[in-house]
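In this section we turn from sequence analysis to structure. A common task in structural bioinformatics is to predict how a protein folds when a small molecule is present, because the ligand can shape the pocket around it. The inputs are simple: the amino acid sequence and a SMILES string for the ligand, here magnesium ion. Study the lines below before reading on.
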Amino acid sequence: MIAFDNVAYSYGGGELLSDISLRLTPGSFHFLTGPSGAGKSTFLKLCYGELLPSAGRISLFDREVRSLSRDDIALTRRRIGMVQQDCQFLDHLPLAANVALPLTVAGKTSTPQDLTDLLGWVGLGQLADAKPPALSGGERQRAALARAIIIGPDVVLADEPTGNLDWEMSLRLLTLLVELNRMGKTVLIATHDLNLIRQAKAQVAARVLRISKRRVQLAGADL
Amino acid sequence: MSLMSLIVPDRRADRQADRVVPPSGHTAWLTSFTAGAMAFLAVFALALSLAAGRLADRWSDALERTATVRLSAPEDQMQLQTDAVLAILSTTPGIATARAMTDAEQRALLEPWFGPDLPIDALPLPRLIELTETGSGYDGEGLRQRLAAEAPGAVLDDHTRWRRPLAVAAGRLRLLGLLSIGLIGTATAAMITLAASAALAANAQVVRVLRQVGARDAYIARAFVRRFTLRALTGAAAGTLVGMIGVALLPSTDTAGGFLTGLGFQGLSWLYPLVLPPLMAVVAFIATRAAAFRKLRELT
Ligand SMILES: Nc1ncnc2c1ncn2[C@@H]1O[C@H](COP(=O)(O)OP(=O)(O)O)[C@@H](O)[C@H]1O
Ligand SMILES: [Mg+2]
């Protein structure tokens, strides 16, 4: 689904990530962890076609990212739901329209009931008409998750999705992601919250990738 | 994305695409104003080049084919010399017809200047002989020499000498008018390109979010292009209307018949300025579309 072969990435200085080879197979559940500044967000952006590798090959749905046109990238992103660390919205549209945006730009429509259900699912049912600038950090992250999954992507990428959430809400969000995984979605969550990872391992066969010394390695069972 | 689908506004997808871009304040106003002002100017440039074209045609076509021989002679020789001149003219190659004006015609010519009571018979007026040339024209200098030899009182007055530069000037004026319209179109395209680029830059976050959720460039561009095209269309329609009213309020051609008063549109040429608003819309469409795709490639 997403495959890295000897991938390296640098923002222009030294290499931030080196010699990464791994595969995210359909239906898998991964965490990506590592200290702040290790390159977790960078890794997710590579998975999503926002950044191109400086060396090596990345395949998204069996197509090399470099060979994708801008339109191909757009179509690929309809199959990959991304929750960015700094969730951005269209501030002039109400939350419901923002959450439905992936459908809108794809020329599809959502039934109002589906949208209401989804907003209820992430605990934002009351805020459908609120404008994004009026939302708290946690509300924005949940809205971003709802937006990421509304189009029914094959893969869900989440960058520190619980960064602004209290423990209870974090667990709720984790449950959402686990549920998505049970529905067959491939899930990759970047986080440095080890409690969250432990909690997840109780629910799902999650594997942990750790970035250290510029490499991405499968972490042992010591977590 | 076709031009028609942009201008026909009742498509659901377009309305939704419109909404994803926040309504923008001053660039909207600027685009409409620019298109309006430019259309206004274009109406006058168009009127100018049409009027210049009419003048050029009239001067170079109708008038240039006629000339006059003015014959001054003592009363008793007048008829003799008139016959001599007519004989010369009838044998000159390149002259189609030649005919002496009657007293009544000459009086009619003079009447506007001297009034109806002019005692024309008592005045030593020259006889006017009107000639028209064929398409190939005649040799003016040769004719002058023959007249001097056989009818010494005859003077050939071929208006072309002073009329030709006027006809050339009118032709140039028409070209300048058309050139102005071209420049106005180019300037409009440049300004709308700037406004569209500014709007895209100001909405960088919107564009980023849209790209992130899987919007294609064409979708994002359409929201901007549609907006700018419609603004240019409405602005240009207003500018054209005001310009046409301005031209209509110019003094009528009939009253004095001078160049300035001939500046208006005539008959069907009133339809020409109606082309301006759609033309401006096409210019805006092309300019915004090019700017949008260029800017989008820069942005993510
Ligand atoms: N656009 C950028 N240009 C240059 N350096 C960047 C850019 N984005 C991130 N970095 C640097 O790359 C490193 C990794 O960033 P990031 O992937 O955000 O780490 P993490 O998400 O693990 O905290 C950091 O040192 C950061 O300063
Ligand atoms: Mg990060």
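The interface with chain A takes residues 13, 16, 19-20, 22-23, 205-206, 208-219, 296-297, 300 of chain B (CB under 8 Å). As an exercise, try to locate the residues that line the magnesium ion site and compare them with your own expectations.
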